[in-house]
Amino acid sequence: xxxxxxxxxxxxxxxxxxxxxxxxxxxxxxxxxxxxxxxxxxxxxxxxxxxxxxxxxxxxxxxxxxxxxxxxxxxxxxxxxxxxxxxxxxxxxxxxxxxxxxxxxxxxxxxxxxxxxxxxxxxxxxxxxxxxxxxxxxxxxxxxxxxxxxxxxxxxxxxxxxxxxxxxxxxxxxxxxxxxxxxxxxxxxxxxxxxxxxxxxxxxxxxxxxxxxxxxxxxxxxxxxxxxxxxxxxxxxxxxxxxxxxxxxxxxxxxxxxxxxxxxxxxxxxxxxxxxxxxxxxxxxxxxxxxxxxxxxxxxxxxxxxxxxxxxxxxxxxxxxxxxxxxxxxxxxxxxxxxxxxxxxxxxxxxxxxxxxxxxxxxxxxxxxxxxxxxxxxxxxxxxxxxxxxxxxxxxxxxxxxxxxxxxxxxxxxxxxxxxxxxxxxxxxxxxxxxxxxxxxxxxxxxxxxxxxxxxxxxxxxxxxxxxxxxxxxxxxxxxxxxxxxxxxxxxxxxxxxxxxxxxxxxxxxxxxxxxxxxxxxxxxxxxxxxxxxxxxxxxxxxxxxxxxxxxxxxxxxxxxxxxxxxxxxxxxxxxxxxxxxxxxxxxxxxxxxxxxxxxxxxxxxxxxxxxxxxxxxxxxxxxxxxxxxxxxxxxxxxxxxxxxxxxxxxxxxxxxxxxxxxxxxxxxxxxxxxxxxxxxxxxxxxxxxxxxxxxxxxxxxxxxxxxxxxxxxxxxxxxxxxxxxxxxxxxxxxxxxxxxxxxxxxxxxxxxxxxxxxxxxxxxxxxxxxxxxxxxxxxxxxxxxxxxxxxxxxxxxxxxxxxxxxxxxxxxxxxxxxxxxxxxxxxxxxxxxxxxxxxxxxxxxxxxxxxxxxxxxxxxxxxxxxxxxxxxxxxxxxxxxxxxxxxxxxxxxxxxxxxxxxxxxxxxxxxxxxxxxxxxxxxxxxxxxxxxxxxxxxxxxxxxxxxxxxxxxxxxxxxxxxxxxxxxxxxxxxxxxxxxxxx
Length: 984
What we know:
Distance between the termini: 46 Å
Strand order of the largest sheet: 8-9-10-7-11
Number of helices: 44
Helix content: 55-70%
């Protein structure tokens, strides 16, 4: 970039004379400022800052006095302009280090290092970004552009007077827009179109005649599934250009419109090679490879060669099939580790649990993969189709290996496969994936006798095997040449120094005779399991049996210790000893799991050997107690003062404690799948049902976050069925309280109202006072949504009385805030503000940051309707920060929606459109259609306010379809907007 229209003269730059000058830093990408180290230096009056800016932007070259006078005053300098310039220079010289501001050739120059000026740094970063993009490294290019843009602190040369500053300000703003366009272009290439819409909407409002921004907005909308809005942007642009400039849109914009009209398939995917727009993460999720991997040479070579060629024209998919225990996972992990050099952008791994009763859902796996690749939760769409598309877009242009272990079928796999060359997928499964198009199929059989003997020898030791080779061959033959069975048998011998190989062979033969009633295919494995199990110490055998009883994909050390009723250190020693025997796997530090065949065997052992049966029940009861006590601790940290924890079923465990709510929430989300599995497993037993219900209630954040809401709702529905089957009215009432809240969050208000009514009846009938209060609170909320304000007041007043009787301050605060919204809907604004303020004070008095955000949300709404816009924005902004930190997507989205409403009342249409767009993005898949309809209505109003009337009408038409489908009264308001727009 040229600084002032003249050529750069690098040879005139003098090096800094002293080391201390390196400490000086200057900024022009914002206010003109100077620092010495951490000290802010005075830059003087506006004219003095103008002189400093003019010198900084000359890149070390000398500016004559005349040039500086022109820069500061243009054609109308004061009579003492030269004296003024000398005065400003003298003052700056005193502030800066000696020798920095020098006089030469009748003018002045600044002697600084290039990196001392933020503009130089920004230009260097932008240049590096251009080079990275040209080299195909879009990931690095976007990171560098972001760093360059981050150096801006508002308007360049802010408040600096003079014609030179004005010219440079316009030039720098244009460059900033060019950088922003380049970054947004890469955002779209990375598949982050939904997130880009908000920023592009705001930018097109600020720069309505900038066609490149309109083009990017059209593409972002089209890729977000909003074709009608994309076409409306073109219509709005064509009308604006004709009215303002008397010209047609540029050819690129017209071509894009034509491609959208014909649904050009090329628009649905990024151009060239995309890169992720979010923070770059390089996942390294592969499990550890076994140090004694043996044999399978031809398979290692075959699979390794396939993976090494993945950067060719076709994505490599290798599907490895074989029976349980044959070593599919071990081989796949070994090959994947060996191939890591070909996949520098990372390796993803998942156990798809295809051999179990609850295979992993592709939707959940994709969510986990996208987060591992650096995407925030708010950027992850709801449907499996959208997640899969975003996943492929994120991987495009990267070289990532995906290991999909233990798959059930091709249908489970297809959404998880990358879509472009450079990536590869390695799949293991029990059955052959013959219907997985294009896959390289590999059938893994048992080991050859020689390979089996090698594996056995590596574990046991050459010295012990070499003298008894025939006995060793008998052992591996008895193991059916299956690696899992061989590993277990060899581990037993390795831990028994007094045994010979012949002793092991004889014992294994005895086990086979004992199991001769089994099917031939299972014989070797089960016989080896018996052998390994029989060698365990009593404490190990007990742990092996009991751990296998728990449902869920794995188990944490703390949960295992609770199930076994052991101190953590003792439990860890036991579990690690089981890992040493190969009967248990360590999935990650502090987490353990079984091979699915071993889990089935462990459960069979528990049925046979864990007597009386009450011991098995007691172990699962202890696990449930651990989860309930810990979830209660999480709930109490997030909702201090809430009385729910005092109304939960008693437990034998105190659970885990946490230093802060953030760590507590981390635990809850990390344990979500195992915790929900425990609830499902426990709910079918009458003696554990109520604790399962209470655990569901204490873990309700899982239902509000969006990440686990579907699994949570499914679990709640199952628990409700169990409660009804067992005839437990109290448990049923509590589940209905939870389900009513879930339906409310999903926008199913009629269903939520029904659940709350039934919950109230059951809770009153069982004298469950806390459940009665919360059910009344929910009935009040539903009445608000259904415009039954008198009913809402009745229910909420009753809830407040109940909460106050129970000294439940957070409950009281919640009902007060809901009553505030009722009064607000009735036009009683002053009372609404007072109630919301009282609710906020109650939350603040007990230190409830999270729920205090709900009060600030209600107060922000009331203040906005009362005309106190600045106060409303402040409260809503406070709420938004908390909701984001707490990972509460629903309330984050709704707060953005309320901010958009406030923006509209303040005639800030561009800001309103930006907030409404962000709300739409965050609320994808959660909150229900009614809420989406309201956001679309507000977005339409905002777009209409910035002149994008065609797009506004599209939003209103979509909102009308939503409200008509729901038979909602809001449809009338939207019809009126459309009629008014058509008449304009």
